[in-house]
Specification:
This protein is of the alpha/beta class. The protein is about 15% helix and about 30% strand. The protein has six helices and 17 strands. The strands form four sheets. The protein has a six-stranded antiparallel β-sheet with strand order 9-8-11-6-7-10. A six-stranded parallel β-sheet has the order 15-14-13-12-16-17, with helices on both faces. Strands 3-1-5 form a three-stranded antiparallel β-sheet.
Length: about 325
């Protein structure tokens, strides 16, 4: 598997060296690559269009990475339900099954009236999903074509196509403790990972920090409490609110998720970190993890960018 994660040129996972041939950069590589890497001929593969045959020097991905091939399947909306004021659970019944996905991966949704597909993470572990179905969490993005349709006009029975599975965000085979950090609809892939760990009896200790603005932005709390009750002391869930009114009845953590990473010895330097959510949160969390001694190779993330941040053809979840 060619290493990739964000598919929008922000994570650097697809970093490769152009040995020969010509490419056209679709974005400015200097945003991610430093001067030494650029001088050595490094490129971001996901942001490169071929201008000729090329020879590439790349370290191919983990042999244990998901190997299933993405395919497009027609489907219909089977259910729409509110999770928060701006996040819906979207359930799709597929005309035929997708290739088996791995918790943490995503799929692309499309409709004939949209200019390009939108990407959303599977919100349930495969063992927790109904046959020929797929479930996603979709946040309403102002002006977002897909999310606005799903939140305001879509009805059960409407056609929608799904292509997947995609992505290299998945739980690595290790005995290291885990810290999960998510915000907003980043809950979806982390929830799927936790369901897999729960079914395996929590062989590894897990701390999950979930960032939200206020109490009305919290969701899946009953699912997290159910997982915690089965965790036998090996799973800790901490929601953190950044904009909760000071006079409210909230007695939990306040502030930004990144502020809590270094507190109370939550994160060991040999931990693996799995992060999903908005880019500013992920960038701040990664900086804190590195200060604690967590190596780059132990940090895995999926940045959620909406269509307003992206150029034509890049991954979008709006």
């Amino acid at each position: 598997a060619w290493p990739n994660s964000c598919r929008v040129g922000s994570c650097g996972t697809c970093r490769s060296r152009l040995v020969s041939g010509k490419i056209k950069p679709l974005n400015d590589f200097s945003y991610v690559l430093n001067e030494t890497e650029l001088d050595a001929g490094c490129i971001l593969a996901c942001q490169s269009a071929l201008r000729s045959d090329v020879e590439i020097d790349v370290a191919l991905g983990d042999a244990n990475a998901p190997s299933s091939q993405a395919r497009a399947v027609a489907g219909t909306l089977a259910g729409l339900s509110d999770l928060t004021h701006d996040i819906k659970e979207v359930r799709i019944r597929l005309n035929e099954p997708l290739e088996s996905y791995v918790a943490g991966q995503f799929a692309e949704m499309t409709r004939p009236d949209l200019d390009r597909p939108r990407s959303y993470s599977f919100a349930s572990a495969p063992s927790h999903e109904a046959k020929n179905c797929a479930t996603f969490h979709v946040r309403l993005v102002p002006g977002g074509a897909m999310s606005t349709w799903l939140h305001t006009r879509a009805r059960v029975g409407d056609p929608i196509d799904v292509k997947g599975p995609l992505g290299n965000f998945y739980l690595r085979d290790s005995e290291s403790p885990i810290v999960c950090i998510a915000g907003g609809s980043g809950m979806a892939p982390i929830k799927a990972l936790l369901e897999d760990l729960c079914d395996a009896g929590f062989p590894r200790k897990v701390v999950y920090l979930f960032g939200a603005r206020t109490q009305k932005d919290l969701y899946c709390l009953s699912e997290m409490h159910a997982i915690q009750s089965r965790g036998a002391g090996r799973f800790a869930f901490m929601p953190v609110l950044s904009n909760e009114p000071s006079g409210s009845d909230w007695t939990g953590a306040r502030g930004f998720v990144s502020d809590f990473i270094a507190r109370d010895n939550l994160v060991a330097d040999d931990a693996e970190a799995y992060l999903c959510g908005p880019p500013p949160m992920i960038d701040a969390a990664i900086a804190q993890l590195k200060l604690l001694g967590v190596a780059d190779k132990r940090i895995f993330f999926d940045k959620f960018l909406d269509a307003s941040h992206l150029q034509q053809g890049a991954r979008s979840s709006a």
